[in-house]
Hints:
This protein is mainly α. Helices cover 81% and strands 0% of the residues.
Amino acid sequence: MLTRFACVLGALILLTVLVWQAIAAGGAPNPTAPNTPLGSAVVDIGVLVFREGLECILVLAAITASMVGASQSYRRPITTGVGLAFLATLLTWRIAVAIVDSLTDNVSALHLQAITGLLAIIVLLIVMNWFFHKIYWSGWISLHTKRKRELMKESERADSTRSARRLVIGLVMLGFTSFYREGFEVVLFLQNYRLKLGGAPVLYGVSVGMTLSAIVAVLTFVANRRLPYKKMLIVTGIMLGVVLLVMVGEQAQEMQLAHWLPTTPIPGLDRVLPEWLGLWLAVFPTVETLAAQAIAAVVVLGSYFIVNAQLRQRRVAA
Length: 318
């Protein structure tokens, strides 16, 4: 029942944003103006935050899965580490904002948006690359679970106060690293949206992503529900791929405005492409924007097929 409620609530939130955007958009955006539709930005940010939240929850669930009964008290240091990581993420946000804002005194707005946009795309490409690498998934999770087992064994071998303190510190660090890595990625990603749209759309998108993540966290750690994490990650991974294509199209457009790229219109294509492609997917009738999106799609799909081929070879070799 709770799982169904969470899915319905998430769908309603996304549907509300989509309907609101469709009413408030006022038509397709001008390809010569670097203005991301507010609703589109909120959805993009919400998807990224939710996806990073899912990954964090998956790692924490793997770490705490065996902490039941007498070992349940070990969850408290991990929770403390997560709380400290949340505060560290907020501090990192403040530092990133201060650095980016200080650069605006020496760099034009268009150039700074182009720079932060490239950084955001690099971060998203790394996230997508990790998503497709099952080796990364198993390695990242097993790294934390292995460290947890080592700490627990050390505590069992020696019952001194020093050993107990070391166990607590180690568990706090496990919770901290599980959360902060995702938070750091999100902070870097959001700087470009903040520069283009201001703080309000970023706040809306982060609120959507954190709300959905909180629902999943409650179902996982409070209601002890076994959720289909793999399917959820696949769905959000596909959505991230769409977000990447949108960002690449917008980034190419900003680089054109900053005169980093030439602008080569494709005659007649503007009359063929439907308006919603420009509104939601940043598909504009220029050679540079379409070529950039095609390259991004090839990189992501290429990574997926290469990893699958490597995994098949390893299974055959085994």
